[in-house]
Amino acid sequence: MPDQRSSVPLQSLCFHLKDIELLDMPVGWTSGSQTAVLHTLLVFARGSGCLHTDRRMLRFSPEQCYLLSPDMPFRLENEYDEALRCYRMTFQVIEVSDRQYSPYAGELFPGRIEAAAYPFSRLLRMIQSLHTGGVDTEADGVQRNIRFQELMGFLLEQNLQAEPTLTPVQAVKNTIRYMHDHYMHQHITVQYLAQLAHLTTWRYTPIFQRITGKKPLHYLTELRINRSKELLLHTQEPLRHIAHEVGFADEYYFNRRFRHITGLTPKQYARQMKRSKRIRDWTGHEVDIPASPERIVYYGETFGDLLALGIQPVGSDNPGSAPRPLAQETLPQVHDIGYPFNADKTMALKPDLIIFANADEKQYRWVSKIAPTVTFNSYAPLEQRMQVLGRMLGRKSEAQRWLDAYGAKAQAMWSRMQGHIRPGETASVLIYDRGGRLFVMGVAGLSSSLYHPSGFKPTEPVGLMLADGLGYAEISPRRLHEYAGDRIFMLLSAEPASRQAAASMMESPLWRSLPAAQSGQVYVIEAEKWNYGDAFTREQLLEWLPRLLSRT
């Protein structure tokens, strides 16, 4: 292998740190498209997902580093296992030669951008020292850059060798790729995989679990089962041949493992899936679901979306999923599956589809073992939710008809209300919940019915929440003036402590100083009845809002 250092003028390079930033981002976060202006080092301490560049897509996980060259476009996407923690360092590289100084924009690690760093804990300590150390004087700046030179020396030493040394994490990732290529071989054991990674089994297994969330043999079994699903659907081979082809020595053991993971025998699965369709859900899973599901369990905030499509689920979570008490009179019995999600109650209903309005990947893994499960964004705009459900459940035309009718009714209602609303008038929806904590509603709940081109406008900070897709946000009472609109809709929680907190606020001097309170434009509303943004409740609100607003 040629020495990679030959293409890098290493002895002529100097490094100057321009900025170091700590990114603490939630699950599901994406950076949007960006371009590295200078050399950029990304160091991941927590989270897992994808780094997209102009060349390819790379997966990142804890204890990984990537070095981007100037002008390289990139995008980060954090997945749904855990929040992201990433250090982003931008720095200049200067080439010094014959008394000349010029920027160096070439690759530091020719042909690759992933950087080895072992032990990672040492690199992390160096980065944290740079991040927390202040630069109050010129001497501080000099010391900081000396520490950065040491950091770059640490990375260059490990990554510009003729034979780069793999970190334990990189070695384990190589064995995962090996498993994907050789899952059909029965010789694969944890001991064998650990030997491939040059690690002891007691070191190998924890690293593997941190990367995948599973033990090695559980991961291997799922690989084999997933491959067997493809063979069951697309071949007519006997069960014993399929078992051997995916790495099981015994078709009876294969049958037991298949049923344990899927809840069905291989033959039952094949019969059911041949009457199915494949969809891509909110968080990116490719899921085979029944073409016409008959026993749906819905877990989430917008239960009423299904009611508007004429769909009767067999189960749902309670409280919070149905627009109670509005829907209860119109519904036959919907079984309560519990909140948090109760697997035993759900399995007893024998669902053929679970709609799971949650992005938690760890929960999804065990919920999806009960029945085909799709994640669903219950905070998405109403139109988007209805279209997604329509496509998913074979009700596409019904969803569009409902949206057209609702849009016409909403426009007619707001047009009739023009005499009661000033042009540009703002509104805010507030609630005390979880004791004495004050929240302002964004895209979720009642507020989704108030903000309309011909209706109320959000205040500026609420408008930012809507743009970011936030369902709600906790605020300090000190910031109430910033969020309070010309009209305030104060929701009363069912919790006694929260109701008392709301009552105390509405008797306070702070509240009486708000323009809405001074002008009598405050509406006190029961949250359990009206704080829903689902399609069923939105229709009901078209009749109720005019009566409420006409009182003033």
UniProtKB/TrEMBL annotation:
InterPro entries named in the record: ABC_transptr_periplasmic_BD (IPR002491), Bact_iron-sidero_bind (IPR051313), Homeodomain-like_sf (IPR009057), HTH_AraC (IPR018060)
Question: By its UniProt entry, which Pfam families does this protein fall under?
Answer: HTH_18, Peripla_BP_2
Keywords assigned by UniProt, alphabetized: Signal, Transcription, Transcription regulation, Transport
Q: Does the keyword Mitochondrion apply?
A: no
Q: Name one GO cellular component term.
A: outer membrane-bounded periplasmic space
| Recorded superkingdom | Bacteria
Instruction: Indicate where this protein is primarily found.
Output: other
- Say yes or no: keyword Transcription present: yes
Q: Which is a GO BP term held by this UniProt record?
A: iron coordination entity transport
As one GO molecular function, the record gives: DNA-binding transcription factor activity
| Positions of the Fe/B12 periplasmic-binding domain | 294-552
Compartments where found: Cell envelope
SUPFAM superfamilies in alphabetical order: Helical backbone' metal receptor (SSF53807), Homeodomain-like (SSF46689)
SMART domains xrefs: HTH_ARAC (SM00342)
Q: Give residue ranges for domain HTH araC/xylS-type.
A: 173-272
What is the similarity comment for this entry?
Belongs to the bacterial solute-binding protein 8 family.
User: What is the protein name stated in its UniProt record?
Assistant: ABC transporter substrate-binding protein
Q: Which organism is it from?
A: Paenibacillus dendrobii
